[in-house]
Write a structure and sequence with these properties.
This protein is an all-alpha fold. The chain has a domain at about 75-205. The chain has 10 helices and no strands. It has helices spanning about 20-40, 50-55, 60-65, 70-75, 80-90, 95-110, 120-130, 135-155, 160-185, 190-205. α7 (about 120-130) packs across α9 (about 160-185), α8 packs across α9 (about 160-185) and α9 (about 160-185) packs across α10 (about 190-205). The protein is globular.
C-alpha cells in the first residue's frame, strides 16, 4: 500500500482538476470541432464564430473552457492527476521504476476523465497536425514543458543520472507514439494502454 505525498515542486506539470461529465464532454467537443476545422480549412482560416457553431456552443462558452483558438485546438496539453504524481513519488504503483514511469505516462490518458479518445479522435488529431505545422510547434512546446516536469519527478524519486531519465523518457515517448499510430490505423482492436504495454515489453525484450 502506498501513501500519498503531496508535492509543490512540479511547476511544469499541469495538474488535472476534477471536472463534471458535462464539462469534460463539452471541452472535448470544442477541441474536436477545432481540429476538424483546422484539418478541413487550415488553422488560420477558421474563426471563433465558426468554431462555436461547429461545437454547438456560444462564443462566450468557448472562453469559459479555453483562453483562445490555439489552446482550444491543442486541447490544453498533457496533464496528470495529483493522485498519480503522489503515488509515483511514494514508490508506486508497482515498486518497479520503469513500470511505474510507464504507468505515469499512461496517467496522461486517464487525467482528462470520461471515455478515452477513440480512433476517429486520434485520426482527426493526426490530420490536423499534418495540415498545420504551426500546431505541431505548439504541441511540441506543450510536451517539452510537460517532459521537463516528468524529469523533475523522476529525479525526485530516483538518484540515477539525469541522462538515464532522459533516455527512458525518450524511449517511452516513441513507444507511446507508435502505439497511438497502431491504434489510429485500425489494424489493432486493443485500446492504446494495452498496445503501449505490449510494445514496451517488446522494447525491453529487444534491449535485454
Amino acid at each position: 500500500m502506498f501513501h500519498s505525498t503531496s508535492t509543490d515542486r512540479t511547476p511544469r506539470l499541469r495538474i488535472a482538476e476534477p471536472m463534471s461529465a458535462k464539462r469534460v464532454r463539452t471541452s472535448r467537443e470544442i477541441t474536436r470541432a477545432a481540429r476538424e476545422l483546422a484539418a478541413e480549412k487550415g488553422y488560420d482560416e477558421f474563426t471563433l464564430d465558426e468554431l462555436a457553431e461547429r461545437a454547438g456552443v456560444s462564443r462566450r462558452t468557448l472562453f469559459n473552457y479555453y483562453d483562445g483558438k490555439l489552446e482550444a485546438t491543442l486541447g490544453g496539453g498533457p496533464q496528470l492527476t495529483q493522485d498519480d504524481i503522489d503515488t509515483f513519488l511514494a514508490g508506486g504503483p508497482t515498486g518497479e521504476f520503469v513500470d511505474d514511469v510507464a504507468a505515469l505516462a499512461l496517467g496522461v490518458l486517464r487525467a482528462s476523465g470520461g471515455a478515452p479518445m477513440g480512433r476517429d479522435d486520434w485520426s482527426i488529431t493526426q490530420r490536423c497536425l499534418e495540415a498545420n505545422p504551426k500546431l505541431i510547434i505548439g504541441a511540441q512546446r506543450q510536451f517539452e514543458g510537460f517532459g521537463e516536469g516528468i524529469l523533475e519527478l523522476l529525479a525526485q524519486r530516483s538518484g540515477r543520472p539525469a541522462v538515464e531519465h532522459q533516455l527512458l523518457l525518450g524511449v517511452l515517448g516513441m513507444t507511446f507514439k507508435i502505439s497511438i499510430d497502431q491504434f489510429s490505423c485500425g489494424g489493432d482492436d486493443r485500446e492504446v494502454p494495452d498496445i503501449f504495454r505490449d510494445n514496451l515489453l517488446t522494447v525491453r525484450r529487444l534491449l535485454s
